[in-house]
Design goal:
The chain is of the alpha/beta class and 167 residues long. It has helices spanning 2-8, 26-37, 50-58, 77-83, 98-109, 113-130, and strands spanning 15-22, 41-48, 65-66, 148-149, 165-166. It has a domain at 1-68. It contains six helices and five strands; from the N terminus they run αβαβαβαααββ. It starts with a helix and ends with a strand.
Length: 167
């Protein structure tokens, strides 16, 4: 299917691109590049230290990025305002849509959960229709000593040892 879609888009022989990422994501970037290669897209992985890459992203000088962005508050606003708001701190692609900005503002201030769900659903529909973005998730594997007490893994992947201690 991918080869058919590439041909329909005017790329019957594929094309070349560069995937920029941090050194920590070398392995998943290489897997993605290999998968793209299977459909005729020549993908070169370029590794960076974050301190070098981030200014280039802010200047809009990278075409394709693999990185992560978590939400420590477990609420959509902690993610969408950074990535999709016109002046969001993590909006490296410079995506801008006044309607999405309005929906983010409305969703972040509404206290009606069913209304918020509909707001974010509409925002996501708009983004999916006009923007190239693929979210990805990496499951955490956490191990600890049987002697550790007063600690449990939490959904935001942070490790809070404030109340933890050993027997």
């Amino acid at each position: 299917l991918a080869k058919v879609l590439l041909k329909e888009a005017g790329y019957p022989d594929g094309f070349s691109l560069v995937l920029d990422t941090e050194t920590d994501f070398k392995e998943p970037a290489e897997i993605i590049a290999a998968m793209l290669g299977e459909v005729g897209i020549d993908c070169t992985v370029r590794l960076w230290e974050w301190g070098v890459l981030k200014p280039l992203l802010l200047e809009g000088e990278r075409a394709l990025l693999l990185n992560t962005w978590g939400s420590s508050i477990l609420d959509p606003v902690g993610y969408v305002d950074a990535k999709f708001l016109t002046d969001g701190r993590g909006n490296y692609s410079k995506y801008s849509n006044p309607e999405v900005d309005r929906l983010i503002a409305e969703g972040s201030t509404s206290v009606d959960l069913s209304k918020r769900k509909e707001i974010y659903k509409e925002m996501q529909r708009i983004i999916n229709d006009e923007y190239f973005y693929i979210g990805w998730s990496i499951d955490d594997l956490t191990g600890c000593s049987v002697d550790l007490i007063n600690w449990e893994p939490i959904p935001d992947s942070r490790i809070n040892l404030h109340d933890a201690s050993f027997k």
